[in-house]
Structure formats: structure tokens, C-alpha cells
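Propose amino acids for all 372 sites.
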């Protein structure tokens, strides 16, 4: 069985893999290039599959306490009228039927504290200078000049993964979709007790509770030329986009000000072909399959990757067989999320029929509810 693992990248995927492996008795070192190990201050939606994965990782209670878990979604017309009754999970139903949200830094805090408590050696402000592998190990030189051998290296360094560039120099590059995502942290009125998604307008807008007193609002804007938005223009730009919406949106718009926490990201995607490993170096999370937020499932996929990798590696003495078994469980699932999410964005840009868009999402969501 493998005994030592280096994880490159301490995001959601890397931290999950670190925790899951350490709990199975593996000696884990985790490095992150950010000396302060920060994460930007935006909200994240946690779908049923992500809640189930966090439950399996043993952090769901803390997510409930420091984030927000609810039992459904309220569809709205962009002008503010409900589009039917809210979807509801039956009382006592499993996490897969629920939804939720949390601030990224809060999730990072929950996971990083567990990682340290599990005895993982965390090294910050360093990255990999070079890998050299043979049949039984990988010799890794870090940018601080240190050098060590590991049974396995996990590249969890996100969409712009350097690990991917090093082992697969000809891999596809991230592609811009034509949409950008705006996120604003706002006070949560008690009536926003579940995700509220506004359909039928010039763009998709949603609100998602992230704590007892906060929510975040997202807007997906069609931005064909991938423009850069200067930070000092963000508030006015948000106010202009939100002016088109009714319901609970005008109250958020009126509260916008210089102190508003607004984050903008152009949407990009990438799906690395099977296999995501070369020898004893394997990629997980966004490094292998970066998706757009249309299914809000990127975090869930990354957590599942970490859990499945630990399960396959510790149940198998043959690393090649374990990584092949990992791919058998991960590739089609990640492909479904990435392709459905990208297609959803294309349909939004083309203003395609809403029932068609919902149908596509429902089919994929049903498939993801199956065991991973
Ligand atoms: C706009 C937007 C909104 C989203 N909303 C949602 C949502 O609501 N719900 C959801 O589930 N998903 C969402 N996602 C997707 C989700 O954020 C990602 O799928 C998830 O963060 C992937 O985790 P990861 O650990 O693979 O990568 P990351 O979270 O990117 O972590 C990578 C880590 O690696 C480190 N790193 C980078 N390069 C190096 C290097 N060379 N050496 C060492 N360390 C390095 C970074 O500092 C970072 O800590 C969204 C994505 C976008 C773009």
C-alpha cells in the first residue's frame, strides 16, 4: 500500500484528498503556492451531491452550523413572481435531496483546520520545481530547494494547473465560454430561506443563503469579448444589471455601495481526456475537469475525487490498477457535469426555451444523485 503522498494545491480537492488519505494512515504533505493560503471572499452554492460528499467527509454538521443548508429551491420569474411552489425535500430526507451555501473562506477554514488536525504536513509559499519518477516513487524538488521522494503525487492545483502542464504539456487549455459570473455578498432577509433563481430575464440571477444572516447573489452576464471590468466600476455595473429584475432583487440593489463585496470571474472550462495520471502523478479537481457554475457542482466533484482516490489507493497494492479504477469511477461523471454546464451556458446565451434548459439540468442532476 502507498505510504507517502505529496498533494500540490490546498483547495477543496487537495484538502479533501489530504484528509481522506491521512485518515487511512497515509503520511501526507500538502503544499500551496499561496504563502497565506487565502481564498477569495465569495459565496458558493452546495448542491445535493456536494452535501452528500461533505457528509461522507465528515464535515456536514460544521457546514450546517457555519453555512446554510435548506430543503429546496424557489423558481421565480425575473419580474419577481414565483414560478410555481418552492421545491421541497421531505423532512428527514438524505443530504442529496437538499441544497445550501457557504462563504468560500468559511469552507476553507473548516477544511484546513481538519487537515492540520489530521497531522498533514502543510508547507505554504512553495510549489514544484521538478518531478522525476521511476516505477516505485516520484522524486520531487520544490521551489525552496528541498527534495523528497513520495509514493504518489496528487496535482490539485486548480484550473491553471502547473502539474498538468508538466505531465501533459499538450493537454487542452481552459476555454472561455462567453459568460462572466458576478457575485455579491448581501444581508439575508428571513424570507430568503432557500435558493431563489430568477428565470426568463436577459440573464440568469440567483440568490443563495450562506449563513444565518448572509446570502450571495450571482448574475451570469453574456460578455462576448471577455472584457476586463475595473473594480471601481463594479457597483455601477451591478446596479445597471439588477435594475431589470423584480422580487427580492431591488432591495439588494438599493443596498449596493462602495463597501459591497463584489467578485467577478470570466467563465472557463476544461476537460482533460482520460487518463488524468501519468505514472505516479495524478490530477484531481479543476486541474482535471474545470466546470462553469451552472450546476454548482465543481466543489462536489473535487470532494468526490479526493474521497474516491483515497478509497481506491488504500484498497489496492497496485498503484496503476488503483489509478485506473479511480478513472473508471470519475471520468464519465466529470464529463457529464462539464458538458451539461457548458451547454447550459450556451442555451442561456441563445435564450433557449426554459423547459429545455430545465430538462437538461434535471437529467444530469438525476444521474449525479447515483452513488459516485
Ligand atoms: C465563478 C465561479 C463560481 C463557482 N461557483 C461554484 C458553486 O457555486 N458551487 C460549486 O460547487 N462550484 C463552484 N465553482 C467551481 C469550484 O469553485 C471549483 O470546482 C473548485 O474550487 C475546485 O477545487 P480545486 O481544489 O480543484 O481547485 P481550487 O479551488 O482552484 O484550488 C487550487 C489550489 O491550488 C493552489 N495552487 C495553484 N497553483 C499552484 C501551484 N502551482 N503550486 C501549488 N499550489 C497551487 C491554489 O492556491 C489553491 O489553493 C465555481 C467556479 C467559478 C469559476
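Proposal:
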Amino acid at each position: 500500500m502507498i505510504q507517502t503522498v505529496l498533494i500540490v494545491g490546498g483547495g477543496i480537492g487537495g484538502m479533501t484528498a489530504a484528509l481522506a488519505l491521512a485518515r487511512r494512515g497515509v503520511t501526507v504533505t500538502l503544499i500551496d503556492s499561496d504563502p497565506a493560503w487565502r481564498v477569495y471572499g465569495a459565496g458558493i452554492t452546495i448542491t445535493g451531491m456536494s452535501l452528500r460528499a461533505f457528509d461522507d467527509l465528515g464535515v456536514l454538521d460544521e457546514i450546517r452550523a457555519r453555512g446554510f443548508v435548506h430543503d429546496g429551491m424557489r423558481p421565480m420569474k425575473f419580474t419577481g413572481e414565483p414560478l410555481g411552489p418552492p421545491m421541497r425535500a421531505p423532512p428527514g430526507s438524505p443530504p442529496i435531496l437538499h441544497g445550501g451555501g457557504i462563504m468560500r473562506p468559511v469552507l476553507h477554514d473548516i477544511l484546513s483546520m481538519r487537515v492540520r488536525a489530521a497531522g498533514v504536513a502543510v508547507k505554504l509559499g512553495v510549489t514544484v520545481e521538478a518531478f522525476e519518477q521511476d516505477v516505485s516513487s516520484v522524486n520531487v524538488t520544490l521551489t525552496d530547494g528541498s527534495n523528497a521522494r513520495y509514493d504518489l503525487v496528487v496535482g490539485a492545483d486548480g484550473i491553471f494547473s502547473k502539474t498538468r502542464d508538466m505531465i501533459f504539456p499538450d493537454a487542452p487549455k481552459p476555454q472561455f465560454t462567453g459568460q462572466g459570473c458576478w457575485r455579491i455578498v448581501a444581508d439575508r432577509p428571513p424570507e430568503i430561506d432557500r435558493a431563489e433563481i430568477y428565470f426568463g430575464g436577459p440573464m440568469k440571477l440567483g440568490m443563495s443563503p450562506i449563513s444565518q444572516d448572509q446570502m450571495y447573489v450571482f448574475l451570469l452576464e453574456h460578455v462576448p469579448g471577455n472584457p476586463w471590468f475595473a473594480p471601481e466600476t463594479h457597483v455601477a455595473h451591478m446596479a445597471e444589471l439588477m435594475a431589470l429584475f423584480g422580487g427580492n432583487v431591488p432591495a439588494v440593489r438599493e443596498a449596493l455601495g462602495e463597501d459591497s463585496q463584489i467578485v467577478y470571474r470570466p467563465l472557463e472550462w476544461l476537460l482533460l481526456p482520460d487518463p488524468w495520471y501519468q505514472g505516479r502523478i495524478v490530477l484531481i479537481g479543476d486541474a482535471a475537469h474545470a466546470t462553469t457554475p451552472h450546476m454548482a457542482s465543481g466543489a462536489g466533484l473535487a470532494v468526490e475525487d479526493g474521497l474516491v482516490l483515497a478509497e481506491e489507493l488504500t484498497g489496492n497494492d497496485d498503484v496503476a490498477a488503483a489509478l485506473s479504477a479511480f478513472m473508471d469511477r470519475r471520468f464519465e461523471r466529470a464529463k457529464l457535469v462539464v458538458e451539461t454546464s457548458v451547454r447550459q451556458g450556451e442555451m442561456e446565451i441563445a435564450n433557449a426555451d426554459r423547459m429545455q434548459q430545465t430538462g437538461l439540468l434535471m437529467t444530469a442532476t438525476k444521474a449525479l444523485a447515483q452513488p459516485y
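Residues 319-349 form the longest helix (31 residues). The chain has a mean pLDDT of 96.
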